[in-house]
Specification:
The protein contains 21 helices and 13 strands. It is an alpha/beta fold and about 550 residues long. The strands form 3 sheets. It has a 6-stranded mixed sheet, sandwiched between helices. It binds 6-O-phosphono-beta-D-fructofuranose (F6P). The site of 6-O-phosphono-beta-D-fructofuranose has 14 residues, from loops. The site of 6-O-phosphono-beta-D-fructofuranose (F6P) has 14 residues, from loops.
């Protein structure tokens, strides 16, 4: 492998050894004790940037540990790696590709050279084509085959061609126009049937999104939906009702979509980082070009913050380092992401692909199996709903689960009473997770309730909360396209930093490819009785479904 990115086993770095030692020295210090020992703790654990107030003080980490993590970032060559990514080097070595989704939202006007050519003019041209198309559909100027305006949009795609657009359309519901935007992803026929069953083909626009235009799920859904459409509409109507987003314009043409109705994307935009490109067409249709531009601008600002800010004040870098601290020194297996807004209920699912597809790797950039833990398991749900679902385990279970709490100061519809209650829960939970409730506190409470001393002794242990559960608080002024763009970009950069530190390639996904290949083999067995050799369990399953 050539050396486009630094290549060093993190466990061999000086900082790693020091962190191991520091972990041994401080592992019994509680969060409460950290606060006592560091009266000015907030001076280095609160980062304020634009609309963001990020408080990472409630972590099992002191200033010395934080400085060692910063040293680790330095020794890992992070600075050089960031420069390599933004300048269009082919840092996705195993696919021989550059990683330039940041070009789609750059606020910089200087030429951005890829293989000697400035990519920005062509990107601007594609964006203008997308904006003009969206304006036409939204205004009703774009007509369906019977002369009616479009009222419904169906995005057909999967993975990065679905999760990002679906999450953002939902997140920006407040900014949405009249178009009803839906998503079909799963190959399960019932999924697309349920989505299209009440649709009128005369007023529906289908957006087929597939970077490769070879994905089984997307092509099956697109073909079935086109057949459904042609059952009711003439062949020439396809041009008014089907558009495509892809890098593979030969395949989109073969599907019957004209060049005019095809929105190109670049090979150097990875699927899970592609909502900023033409893959975001459904977002742009749902909220219009003005808000879509706001989303890009917010991400562009976060990119500049990430590129230019010293590591100790750099939000994605700091959050990535804290995550590595828990993953590799505390052996935490997972991280929870809890957005305190229903608008972001699918942010955890979206980030699952971003984080787990990127950093779920066990081979280092040196081509050898790693001898340390990489990618974190990501899960979560919106607060306060999550409090009534899985918070019990975070508060009183046996597992260490660092959590990101994401909240917004202002409610979009301005309901003060509800917003105060929401924020009270948002803040109270991180406080409770940190402080817990001691046996003495429990006894005082039980005493006051009038419970008999015998009963108190029996019940008290169950009411104790150990506390000392770590959280990051991300408090943002309000949920706008701009702040959402910045938030998503923050997590994208966190992924990249962790990949660099773990010495893995974050931008390929060979693990998913195997599943795709094997499904095709089994499909031949199911459809054509091909009888490929399989293990006994698989043979029995195949027999069982054919019975
Ligand atoms: O899940 C694997 C994957 O390759 C993702 O990375 C990608 O977002 C998804 O499949 C869909 O791929 P495509 O956009 O090419 O249909």
């Amino acid at each position: 492998m050539h050396k486009i990115l630094p290549n060093s086993n993190p466990t061999a770095l000086d900082a790693w050894e020091s962190l191991k030692q520091h972990f041994q020295n401080t592992k019994h210090t509680t969060l409460r004790e950290h606060f006592k020992e560091e009266p000015n703790r907030l001076d280095y654990t609160v980062l304020e940037w634009e609309e963001f107030y990020v408080d990472f003080s409630k972590n099992r980490l002191d200033k010395k540990g934080f400085d060692l993590l910063l040293k680790l970032a330095k020794e890992s060559g992070l600075k050089e790696a960031i420069a390599a990514q933004f300048s269009g080097n082919k840092i996705n070595v195993t696919e021989d590709r550059a990683v330039l989704h940041t070009a789609l939202r750059t606020l910089k006007k200087d030429p951005l050279l890829f293989e000697g050519e400035n990519v920005l003019p062509a990107l601007a041209e594609t964006q203008q084509k997308m904006y003009a198309f969206c304006d036409n559909v939204i205004s009703g100027a774009w007509k369906g085959y019977t002369g009616k305006a479009i009222t419904h949009i169906v995005n057909i795609g999967i993975g990065g061609s679905d999760l990002g657009p679906a999450m953002v359309v939902e997140a920006l519901e407040y900014y949405k126009n009249h178009l009803d935007v839906r998503f079909v992803s799963n190959v399960e026929g019932d999924h697309h049937q349920e989505v299209i069953k009440d649709l009128n083909p005369e007023t529906t626009l289908f957006v087929i999104v597939s970077k490769t235009f070879t994905t089984q799920e997307t092509l099956s859904n697109a073909n079935s939906i086109r057949a459904w459409f042609l059952n009711q509409a003439p062949e020439q109507a396809v041009a008014q009702h089907f558009v495509a987003v892809s890098t593979n314009t030969e395949k989109t043409a073969a599907f019957g979509i004209s060049a005019e109705n095809t929105f190109p994307m670049n090979d150097w935009v990875g699927g899970r980082f592609s909502l900023w490109s033409t893959v975001g067409l459904s977002i742009c249709l749902a909220v219009g070009p003005k808000h879509f531009t706001g989303l890009l601008e917010g991400a562009g600002k976060m990119d500049a913050h990430f590129q230019e800010t010293p590591f100790d004040k750099n939000i994605p870098v700091v959050l990535a380092l804290i995550s590595v601290w828990y993953n590799n020194f505390w052996n935490a297996e997972s991280e929870a992401i809890i957005p305190y807004t229903q608008y972001l209920r699918n942010l955890p699912a979206y980030l699952q692909q971003g984080i787990m597809e990127s950093n779920g790797k066990s081979v280092g950039r040196d081509g050898k199996r790693v001898n340390y833990q990489t990618g974190t398991l990501i899960w979560g749900a919106s607060g306060t709903n999550a409090q009534h679902a899985f918070f019990q385990l975070i508060h009183q279970g046996t597992k260490l689960i660092p959590a990101d709490f994401i909240g917004f100061k202002k409610a979009l519809h301005g309901n003060k009473d509800h917003q105060e209650k929401l924020l009270a829960n948002f803040i109270a939970q991180t406080e409770a997770l940190m402080n817990g409730k001691t046996l003495d506190q429990v006894k005082v409470e039980l005493n006051a309730s009038g419970m008999s001393p015998e009963e108190q002794i029996k019940i008290a242990p169950f009411k104790v909360f150990e506390g000392n559960k770590p959280t990051n608080t991300l408090l943002i002024d309000s949920l706008t396209p701009n702040s959402l763009g910045a938030l998503i970009a923050l997590y994208e950069h966190k992924i990249f930093v962790q990949g660099i530190l773990w010495n893995i390639y974050s931008y390929d996904q060979w693990g998913v490819e195997l599943g795709k290949q094997l499904a095709n083999v089994v499909l031949e067995d199911i459809k054509d009785n091909a009888n490929h050799p399989h293990d006994k369990s698989t043979q029995a399953l195949l027999k069982h479904i054919s019975d």
